[in-house]
Amino acid sequence: MKIDVIGDVHGCFKELLELLHTLGYEQQENSYIHPDGRIPVFLGDITDRGPDSLQVVQLVYEMVVVHNKAHYVPGNHCNKLYRFFLGNNVQQRYGLETTVAEYKALSDAQQDSICNQFITLYEQAPLYLNLPEVNAVIAHAGIKESYIGRTDKKVKTFVLYGDITGKVQADGRPIRGDWAKEYTGNKWVVYGHTPVKEARFINKTVNIDTGCVFGNALSAFRLPEEQLVSVPSSQPLVEEKFSHFE
After folding, report:
1. Which intervals hold domain Calcineurin-like phosphoesterase (predicted)?
2. How far is CA 193 from the centre of its chain?
3. What predicted TM-score, i.e. pTM, was given to this entire model?
4. What is the residue-wise DSSP string for 7-66?
């Protein structure tokens, strides 16, 4: 088994296609297939903030659900969009408003189609992926070693939102603990969620959310090769959105 874990796309459809091409994928019908049988794994937060969230949803749905040639795990933005599509009263901010605006511009039939596609994609998705074939766990915001194998509410919150402390920074962003510093497992944990200028390798973890929607890059981590592949973003750079670690 060989996989390409793709970081937070956030509606950056153009960069996603460029990354797939760079990784060697070829378009077949409405999907992308690798001639060597590699499997793409989408790391959650495929929508919101970027210009083409619904096109990303359609492509990921085709690759994961229709053709069964890719994997997907949800992120916090995915969870929020799922609840919106279920009809829940969700606050339309932090990027959800951009996806909702795209959605509302569609015809009723198109709205029904994209809503059903995303609900199906989300409901079929595992909370995180444990892939012993490549000695890796794929989780949107990461996962503590002691949580691997569990799917209870505490683990769900961690996997979607990260190591939240309940405290917030002056700009309203949550203050998170640095779980990766404490990680001592021998499996790779590949995650995203927190934008960083360069992929962050610490212990056997790697954060590959290189902030494409904030103007930096879209990245993939290849296993078992342990190789990082990135393409530059065409979005304007928003420097203050990137986290800096000790």
Report:
1. 1-196
2. 7
3. 0.96
4. ---TT-HHHHHHHHHHTT-EEETTEEE-TT--EEEE-S--SSSSS-HHHHHHHHHIIIII
Q: pLDDT tens, position by position, for the chain (246 residues)?
A: 999 999 999 999 999 999 999 999 999 989 999 999 999 999 999 999 999 999 999 999 999 999 999 999 999 999 999 999 999 999 999 999 999 999 999 999 999 999 999 999 999 999 999 999 999 999 999 999 999 999 999 999 999 999 987 787 777 767 778 999 999 999 999 999 999 999 999 999 999 999 999 999 999 999 999 999 999 999 999 999 998 876
Cβ atoms 149, 166 nearer than 8 A: no
Determine which helix (DSSP H) or strand (DSSP E) holds 101, and give its type and residue range: helix 96-104
